[in-house]
# Entry
Amino acid sequence: MKPVVVDAMGGDNAPSIVIEGVREAIDAGIPVELVGDPQIADDCGDIVLHAASEVIGMAEEPGRAVRNKKDSSIVRAAELVRDGHASAMVSAGNTGAVAAAALLRMKRIKGVSRPAIATTLPVPDRPPKILLDSGAMADCQPDWLQQFARMGSAFSQVRYELQTPRVGLVSIGEEPEKGNQLVKDTHRLLAEDKTINFIGNVEGRDVLSGDVDVLVADGFTGNVILKTLEGTVQFLVGEIIAALTSEAAASVGAEALGHLAPIAAELNPDAVGGAMLLGVNGVAIISHGSAGPTAILNACRVAKDMVERELVAELTSAVAD
Amino acid sequence: MKPVVVDAMGGDNAPSIVIEGVREAIDAGIPVELVGDPQIADDCGDIVLHAASEVIGMAEEPGRAVRNKKDSSIVRAAELVRDGHASAMVSAGNTGAVAAAALLRMKRIKGVSRPAIATTLPVPDRPPKILLDSGAMADCQPDWLQQFARMGSAFSQVRYELQTPRVGLVSIGEEPEKGNQLVKDTHRLLAEDKTINFIGNVEGRDVLSGDVDVLVADGFTGNVILKTLEGTVQFLVGEIIAALTSEAAASVGAEALGHLAPIAAELNPDAVGGAMLLGVNGVAIISHGSAGPTAILNACRVAKDMVERELVAELTSAVAD
# Structure
């Protein structure tokens, strides 16, 4: 297959961590190339490096950055996919900029109104759930959310091999009449959509433990959910570590933490590699800004899988029905 | 002071748990009376019981239930406040019905466009944060959110005696231009509002650990945050208990759980008693449906405090400026 291109400049620990992850991916048999500042060529060793002289910062306004920095690593990566040199792109950089660059360079899948970011929620001991849109489109229309539902369902089938993923609409009550106007209007569209397995409204408390595979929300709500979830997990993990490393807990703390470590490991976003931008004409994966080498390796692995399983063709057919 | 009236029929464990909590409140010196089915009079002993023949169920559509069940305990409780018999009401029943009954019977504070539910987020070892609206109004306008900000700030001053509470607007990025249209428009209003200490946008990850005292959101977003937070805490607590009560952890599990118990205790919503409906002409507290006796006791205590500290007058002046 054609190589996956990885943005060497993206993420809080670029380029060293990214290069490390890419090296692991290549060692695992995945064809990967880098895009980034030519000055890092030495650090890349024998990994192919496509030159891009500019870097889009994590806090830059995405639309403006993509328009102005045409020779940035994010934009160049999207172009390498568009031009057929690469099969997929991976970046741990500015989420909005990756979405904008992919959208502008690769263009939308025919029939797709707006792209959505699909985030896999790592849940210990349970099948993974997908939340979309987790931040691409802050203001949405009901028919866009319907497409998100279809794309999320198709992605769940391709990525996690679920036969008929259960699709839930995020609301503030299970009854169809609960929610804001957008959700109530979307509920009607989803209830009539025969191409998905719509199970009705789900709530914030179902995000981790509910019997649902695909959670549909506008990008504002989805992003708030994701950040609340991450913040709560981080906060609790911090409190637990403080309690168990205190002097009072000295006799049991270390061993107890050992028993709790697997829970933290499974909730670690690095395990899933990154979020998937759905709706553009190519495979684009957005990794967490704090992604470690394992996250980059896993993102490359997922990118390869999604290319081989023809994700884009499946999404095209999902929205076309 | 005039008594606090408590809805005897509200909550998952009514009336027994409610009566138990009310008895504790009376023992603590708070004047409390009950409203509910005359058939429970024997269980109430010497506690005054105001008769109400109907009960609004937890899953009933709030507006319809309040219109149709005029002799329900929730509606009668609101009327006892309106008529000047009681100083405040407390219910662990249907949240929407309590909000609707309080709004229809007590009416709005002059100048208030819409009421909001202010929920206290219990955070271990830190000053409590207030989230509003946590579910009263799913679709909001910018000027309503501005009033929520003012009312939340005044409530934080009255309830937690913070001098200049830091008010944050929930969004998906710190920059003013981040968010959906509602949030962007609201940001401009709050930035110009000299009556509050607006610190800008905050994110889901700030809900527990951020340097902010009052989190402002529309009722849809606020409710999603609250449920996501509760669901995540519950899920993690379940996972931790499972890990530490497993055979593998037998030698340390029980003691380790003992060290973690204080964290769980502080995150327990019972500790704060309930959410406050802000913007109506009276003190109305909505307790969690799963409220235990301690939650009812604490709700009565907060109700008494808010009456004595003249919350309604403070809110009136906060929105009038």
About this structure: Chain B has two domains: 1-110+279-321, 113-270. Chain B touches chain A through 56 residues (CB under 8 Å). The longest strand of chain B covers residues 116-121.
